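Protein in question filed below.

…
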Amino acid sequence: MTAVTTLAPGTTTAEHELAALQREHGRPLFALLLRLCDGDRQRAEDLVQETLVRAWQHPEALRADAFESVRPWLLTVARRLAIDARRARRARPAEVGDAVLDNARVCADHAERSAATVDVREAVKTLTPEHREVLVLVYFQGASVAEAAQTLGIPPGTVKSRAYYALRALRRVLPGYAADLR
């Protein structure tokens, strides 16, 4: 005697078979894919659905008499889909959220840096020769206060005071750069 399957109105045989596959093999598929997706539940659920779509696309594999259960076929398809998904993620740049972009440091482009260099050079030309030579030694050539004092033949306190007044004069001439000159 053959069993008669009653389907809900509007439900096709393929939908019925897929629902049965989901009930019978869904949990083992999800468990495997969850491990392969490093615990990412959303990705594992997506891959379970993709595995079932593949089963729907290949009904001949589901009805093959060569094996007792379709579970090995489903698990193989699921594993291959997970491997393909992992390879695809590694092939493209990592995704970043808006929070990362909001906190990212913005680097000035080359044109801005060149313009700033020209502005600073012009501003340094407005300094007195004494202030300019201290500024050049200490800030542009990286000399210590003691080295600048020895090179210029003046006391270290004078080097500090000239550097202070030179920076103060530059702040007046370069108002847009005031934060950088502190």
